[in-house]
Task: structure prediction
Amino acid sequence: MQLRLLFCLALLCPQGLSLLAHHHHSGRTRRTVPELPVVTTVASSNRNFTFDLFRALAAASPNQNIFFSPLSISMLLAMISLGARSNTKAQILECLGLGLQGGPGEEELHQAFHRLLQELRQPREDLQLSLGNALFIKPEVHILDSFLSTMRTLYLADTFPTNFQNPEEAQKQINDYVAKQTKGKIADLVKNLDSSEIMVLVNYIFFKAKWETRFNPEYTQKQDFHVTPETVVQVPMMRREDGYSFLLDSNLNCKVVGLPYQGNATALFILPDEGRMEKVEAGLNQETLRKWLKMFTKRKFQLYLPRFSIEGSYQLEKVLPKLGIRDIFTSHADLTGFTNHSNVHVSEMVHKATVEVDESGTKATAATEIVFTFRSAHIGSRMIMFNRPFLMMIVENSRNILFLGKVIRPSGGDLS
Result:
């Protein structure tokens, strides 16, 4: 018998999507949502989940595109921690950079997500945005009332009885729900269900927005993109001359350009110097991000940025143990906060994400699935061209990292 918890996240835009500018109210006073501890540095810990996970994913997939949502995976782990106990719970909280279980750090984590969910449900005049959770439960299996109550009150989760004895019917029910919530962008998140499933938990986010200043499609032309010194592909290169947020990080040997979206959100594009990608990756942390955002200056130059799409799919049960979350995937898992059954562990945890960047903005979707199983400075020129591998980060309110990625080879690039 299996307990599958599935988490999906989708961010997209009509002509091009941006990110979670979740408290932008056109013409009105906006209420600030507190910074989530899972995506920032916590004073009591040196752990930095977002960047530690990025480096682990990059190490597991060398020389490949990387794109994922720290928000989706963080909320996933936070919800799992509600049902975890003993060392299983401690490993999750430690990985997220929180203090001792039951302490103020844990409560702050859940309350921050709760406030975020409430804020995102407020109506918006200039964007479409939704964030939510749902549980699909096998009626014959008893899920603890305390867990369900907490999921409903803290994470505002909907619950649906589901006939897992008919896997195809259950799979269609869940996928139809996810497709509806993500406007069809994630249509087949659940695959290969069987009659042993007892619960599926879905987390979704949907967002639409645009660049603050769009690129003119008439200026987009095919240009060389140097995947490696030996491999060159042709990509559609967008071009726009404007004033941009810019800095030259001489310590990490990279240039950083900030492009604002409509709403309180920014995309950061990080271009390492030739041969310096590994140094930049190793130097990524919350303090680096804060320094970049603080030291940005406005500079006018010609920006060349590929119109690209990339996607990533990750088996997180193979990656998270490297960050200290081990027991949950083994016979040592203690998930007795979910159910009376003591022999439950996570057998699979999948995260999928896609991103598209075009003249109007950015489209991004992501989904995370987990399966629980009963065990058996100075610009040197007036031009910056992103024509070699670079990093991309989407930041909300200058602090919360919603997406993080590495573009090695933009999809659709033709060999030149």
Remarks:
- Residues 95 and 167 are 34 Å apart (CA to CA).
- Residues 217-306+378-408 form a domain with the Alpha-1-antitrypsin; domain 1 fold (CATH 2.30.39.10).
- The two ends are 52 Å apart (CA to CA).
- The chain has two domains: 2-210+309-374, 217-306+378-408.
